[in-house]
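Summary for the steering committee. The consortium agreed at its last meeting that each partner would contribute one worked example illustrating the joint modelling workflow. Our contribution is presented below. We chose a case with several input lines so that the handling of multiple components could be demonstrated. No manual editing was applied between input and output; the record is shown as generated.
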Amino acid sequence: MNVFSRFAKKLAILLGRQRFSRELDEEMAFHREQAEKEFLAAGMTPEASRYAAMRQFGNATRLKEKSHEVVGFHVETVIQDLSFAQRQLRRNPGFAVTAILILALGIGASVAIFAFVDAALIKPLPYPNPTRLVEVTESLALFPRGNLSYADYIDWKRSNTVFSSMDVYTAHRFEFNTPFGTESVHGLQVSAGFFSTLGIQPMLGRDFRPGEDAPGAAPVVMLRYGAWQKRFGGRPDVVGQTVNLSGVAYTIVGVLPPDFEFAPREIAEFFEPLRPTGECEKRRSCHNLVAVGRLKNGVTVGGALAQMKAIALQLENQYPDSNRGQGASVLPLSAAIVGDIKPILLVLLGGAGLLLLIACVNVSSLLLVRAETRRREIAVRGALGASRLRLSRQFVTEALMLVASGGAIGLGVAYAGIKGLSGMISKDWLAGMPFLRGLGLNPRVLIFTSCLVFLAGILFSITPILHLRFSEMRDGLTEGARGSAGRLWRRMGANLVVIELATAVVLLAGAGLLGKSLYRLLQQDLGFRSDHLATMNVGLPAVAFTKDEQQSLLQNSSFNHI
Amino acid sequence: MARKPDLLPGTPDLLPGTLDMLILKTLTRAPLHGYGIALSIKRSSNDVLTVEEGSLYPALQRLLLQGWVKAEWKMTETKRRARYYTLTAAGRKQLGIELSQFEQMIAAIGRVLQDPQEVI
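What follows is the complete predicted structure of the assembly.
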């Protein structure tokens, strides 16, 4: 039997419901007329034959209903429930609006915060296999995560057996000539294998080749997608062209894909291979690098840390002057990036969760009160033959309708909340948290919302059903019957109030403490007046200002001009 | 079995499940409208079997859904619009299945009734 074609036919009938009804009407009217004619032919008077035909035919409405039942889906009762629930809510607009608004606020707040948690904690790294990526740094008593020196990096890279690859980066500024003057732009110096360690392929051109971070190699540069769009008009022929950066002619070899981000630093526009030609790279005691490693299969962060510590100890023995007291730190890259905001986000999520709990408790108590006033209605429906299942389903439908409306409005609230909250983060912070750019109502956030709505729906369905114990339904018919059910309600209601008060106290205390901390932070005595001070950086092209004398000359003349 | 008060006394109800088969069988000769089907069954059974309209039209909808009959609006000889039902190939096959099942059942009932051991 072809279930699918039967379903399709039913669907077609459902869509053309009126036509189906009309045709059935016409068909049955035809039938009645024929019967009437036959009676007439048998010698009855016209009136008698009409009545006889009608009598024979029976209740036309019921007949039609029977045909409808054959072709209908078994959702008719659900639709009935829905429209009844809608009527109930509309008849009680105060209750409906209050409940839906409370829910919308609770759900909205939770979802908005969850969107941040999702962006920061669940998928912070836009690289393949992000959990295998770690940040490797040196550690000192003073700096638990201190920069790495180039010489140490070379030794670490050579001696370790825990990383399939290990590369370093450091921030670098380039002077870029534009028609409006020279601009200082952010860049990154990276060892040649950096992008392949992250698992990133350039979308245009090629990656750095292994030898290109050697001292004598020709200067090459890769572009961030944004820089390619902004500064080079997104032209595909940009690969192979030369660009003047800080007075040096670089060949552009590749453009990185649009979703590439490297969070630990400001948004870098240019990437060049790190060559050990600077003063700093030559000294083991000059620390300017951060390493990123990709763990080999089966190696844990702890295992990698143990080995790096052993290597650091060995280097300390070998170079006691420069490496005294230097250990190693290995952190998952995601933790290294989002480390600071993780506790903040979790606290916020907890707060939002408590707020939602309060909202749910509030709506539950409203539902309880309403169920109490509807005892009679339920009792009458029960007496008229509605099954317990059907009565319970009525509550479930109403609860679902409430939470669905609340959830829908809540999504709007969440959207506004996300926009508002991210607007409150300063630009500098945002630049350091590029993972927040993926913020929004993505599928994971929507799934989270559905889970909340689902749980709230269950809660709100169960509350009134528990309250109206159907075995005592008959009591509801007798006016003023308030036996054990009334007691039950009082007990549940009291418990709900206790839960709610406790949650509110926790929230208030938390909010108060946070406010107090913020106040202290703002009132912190820095030891100097900061309200009239500004800081600035001056970038000099290294080619033009090679000698210290030139630099100090510029410095002096600058100070004189200010 | 409960009997409708408006039926003539002595009119037996149809055996359950046989209506679909009767409709299909009736349609093997020619396409018919609902009234025609009811009339044909009544005449062929010498007025013994009366198809109630309350079961006829739901049954027709069921057969339509199963794809065993097709419906089509046509003009009658008296120039009235009526919905004519036609047997489909699947319906013909289904009729064969139902007939053989029905015969088996009748035979089984017959054997039970003729069993000399049983005293009625």
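The mean pLDDT of chain A is 80. The radius of gyration of chain A is 37 Å.
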